[in-house]
Amino acid sequence: MKDGSGTLLTLAVFFATMSLFAIGGANSAVPEMHRYAVSVQHWLTDPEFSETFALAQLTPGPNLIIVTLIGYHVAGVIGGLVTTLAMCGPTCVFAYFVGRTSDRFKGAAWHSALSRGLVPVTLGLLASSATVIATTSDYSRLALVITAGTAILAFFMRVHPLWAFAAAAALGFAGMV
Amino acid sequence: MTSSAPIPAAADPQSAPSSLSPDPRPETASPPPSQPPSLDEIFFAFAKISLSGFGGVLAWARRMMVEERKWMTPEQFNEVYALCSFLPGGNIVNFSIIFGGRLRGPLGALASLAGLLGPPLILILIIGAIYAHYGDLPGLRRALMGVASAAAGLMMATVAKMARPLFRDRAVVGPLIACATFVAISIMHWPLPYVLLVIIPVSVTYAWRHG
Description:
Chain A is built from seven helices and no strands. Chain A is mainly α.
């Protein structure tokens, strides 16, 4: 909370720009948020970033609510609101007009090429997000075991996130590995 | 929440469409009512969707829109979902905007957005305030570390599931693009816009040529 309006402007510009590149949802943009908030601006430390991510995961609602928490951490309630607006404003206006006109290009060839072309990119981004969270949370053995265990369980069976989070929180709380 | 609750979509985006298995009934069997829902109905429907969904809301959106309120047919839901999956920004946020906007114009879009974002916004600000006070407690930090690690694991499982068809269909280029994106972001730490402005045209052009 250094100088108020300058920080708010920085938050707004960064999140508004980033939102336009958040393909595949807010989770794809986690590495970019980490790069900027931790490495460039030093708003948060690595552990604070992954704790913020964890809190957002524990909150019901859209995943992009993590940006509200980052904004709140940087500049209080106003920061949270500004960040959320910046994250949603431009993309919502875009989505609104696409939604109103999308019947016109339904089934167009470029439509299908675009969605198929975006799949591998989204995949690479999500893999990066998982890596960022796994490596910033902690290098402890327990953290690695929880990450690997959840990944394997969720790959082979349906795991409700809430159960996974509850079990992991209990393990983390109890374990001093 | 019962054990039959669907897995929230964002934790597992790719399996969501399959878990929302196509309704066998033809579109004409459950037409949406001719009278569009009112603004406050839209607001409360999205508030309920938002508060029901942990780690992602898409499955709950389908349950509410298609099954409970019958405001959309399964086909309409799939069409809007497909549209949202490649628009930038939060998928479910875009979904709410397109849904509200098509039914009731700008005010409809605002009503659905306010319903979707309002409750979690208030919740997360309260959580943020509590965390600011008690965030240094070692027990809390360790518990959150556990949650973050589990969330990373869930994401890895999603990535592995998404990667399977990619390796089946386009043996070389798709995985190569996924790996290049990963290296650029995770290892080189290049800014997202620059990376995407190069990699998306390459990937989409390839998909276009080899459709």
